[in-house]
Amino acid sequence: ERQEVLSKVIATTSGLGRQDVMKIWAILQAGGGSFSKSLTPSCTHLFTYNTSSVSCSMKVIQGAKFGISF
User: Of all helices (H) and strands (E), which one includes residue 23?
Assistant: First the structure.
């Protein structure tokens, strides 16, 4: 039986290039996880290069409104 080690992961990205987003998507798919094009209340992970960017800061603020902490 195949282990889906990422089955509880729902991830989104902020400020990453298309190639990096596609790699993350592929890893999530292979491990049984899910990718969200935007931050939603169900997201469990945020992938970004720069945690001080405006985009990341806005996602953290948006996440806080959903009750998500990063």
Answer: helix 18-31
